[in-house]
Amino acid sequence: GHADERVLRAAELYARHSGLDVVGILTKPIATEALIALLGLADPQGGGKRRQDLERAMSGGEIVPYYQPKFAMRGGRCCLVGAEALARWHHPRLGLLVPEKFFRDIQAEGLHGALTDRMLDDVMGFSARCRGDGHDLQFAVNFSPSLISDASWPERIEEHLARHGVPATSFAVEITEEVVTDNTLRSIEVLTRLRLKGISVLLDDFGTGYSSLLRLH
């Protein structure tokens, strides 16, 4: 029968925690196209081919940033102030895929750092072009908790900024509430170093999890 999407997500999470390899979830009535897409994501040939496909997708420009605009009220007018870069995979067989369909495989193959580097290069290049056209916008990229605990990222981001001639104030790192909740010393060190370099740190989807103003602060 029909189940609420939140119930389906909870069942998916429980199955994964129980050690099952869950490709995705389907709602009833099951659409043929959705079933074919999920079957296509299952990799019967093992992780080797899966890794090759992901590396090809990143190096070949199949995984690219899509931009979700951000607006602010200024002087009674709604103004475009920036955008959040969201990864999308133009899969040659399955069409356009959102991160929920491939990011778990990216993490399993240890490629999330490589994907973030790819995204940073694309986003910084686009930011530089916008600045060249006279648009001073701030672009944001999502960082997973594992990357925020990696002390090399502040310098790596700075290198991307310098390569494209983009000021630190035109870039922001978006983190989830999970990073704030974990509150590890290494994460605090990385976030502090980002702020000292002039890079903004944004809390993504504030209010949808275990939120509090103390954690936001």
Structure description:
- The chain has 217 residues and is α/β, with parallel strands linked by helices.
- It is 47% helix and 20% strand.
- The protein is built from ten helices and six strands; from the N terminus they run H-H-H-E-E-E-H-H-E-H-H-E-H-H-E-H.
- The chain has helices spanning 5-17, 32-41, 47-59, 103-108, 112-132, 145-148, 153-164, 177-182, 185-196, 213-216; strands spanning 63-74, 77-91, 95-97, 138-142, 171-175, 200-203.
- Strands 1, 2, 3, 4, 5 and 6 form a six-stranded mixed sheet that branches.
- Helix 5 (112-132) runs parallel beside helix 7.
- The longest helix has 21 residues, at 112-132.
- The model has no long low-confidence stretch (mean pLDDT 85).
Structural class of the secondary elements? alpha/beta
Beta-strand residue fraction: 15-25%
Calculate Rg over CA atoms: 19 Å
Contiguous low-pLDDT stretches (5 residues minimum) are: none
In total, the number of strands is 6
The number of distinct helices, counting runs of at least 4 residues, comes to 10
Helical coverage, percent range: 40-55%
Order of helices and strands: HHHEEEHHEHHEHHEH
Overall 3D form: globular
Q: What does the main sheet amount to?
A: 6 strands, mixed
End-to-end separation: 44 Å
Average pLDDT number: 85
